Amino acid sequence: MSLTTIFEPLTLDEENERIHLERQVERAFYQAGLALQLLRDKKLYRSTHNTFQEYCQDRFGFTKRSAYYLIDAVQIVDNLQKSEPLVHIMPTSERQCRALKSLKPSQQQEAWNKAVARAKGKVPSSRIVRDVVNQIKNQDTQAKNNHQLKSKIKFIPLKNPSIGQRVRICSEHPLFARELATITQIPNNRSVVLELDNQSRQLIDIKDLEIERVVDKNNKVTASSEGVNYVRGVGLEWYVRVDEATWNKLNKYAQKVGTATLGSAIARLLESEMK
Hints:
The N and C termini lie far apart (83 Å). The strands form two sheets. This protein has a six-stranded antiparallel sheet. Strands 7-8 form a two-stranded antiparallel sheet. Helix 6 packs across helix 7 and helix 8 crosses helix 9. The protein contains nine helices and eight strands. The longest helix has 26 residues. The chain is of the alpha+beta class. The chain folds into two domains: 138 residues; 122 residues, Roll (SH3 type barrels).
């Protein structure tokens, strides 16, 4: 048998007083930060101390970092209060604001709203805020990296097709413009059979194909060095320079034995020679 606790109800005045006092407790860190900011900016410590850091340490037992955490929290809370739609759940401690400092003002508002939502409409813990901030920063880093990669990539006409090679159909093609595909067959020196990403196969002229290459700061294509190279979207690849005659022989051998890539053809050829 469970016992039900009966609480004594508050009068309207008592309820209002409780809310007022709770707000003071919740904003204690904000008031402290605001006071420290004024003490620093007006140099009201100068009659007893040479620096703001010494003053905070002697008067409040604060390190310089702790004092500035509180001051930074004031700016963050002020920014959150400008959020649209209006934020009703506000930080109740400096630690909840600390991680937001590394974000832009608009991102601070976004991060706080997401943290409140993750806390199911309640004041989020500093851990929740930190997790949301890290998520936003990781997204920004990924977007920046993608932009940098795109700025270094250029598509150039394909000259020497090989089985298994990834290519893009040029933008002028009437049916498959900018489609990505893999070369599966080379029936002649004018066209290739492609397997598109949707699994369909098409016979396409070589003149309509492009390959992705890295360009330098002068927009010149950088040649892949012999050995191990990294290709975006593919990973590590191994390059060996061969003359045109050897290249054509490898392609013919790949078609003869029915391998999907030149790499597989070379592997089969080496295996047969080593037996």
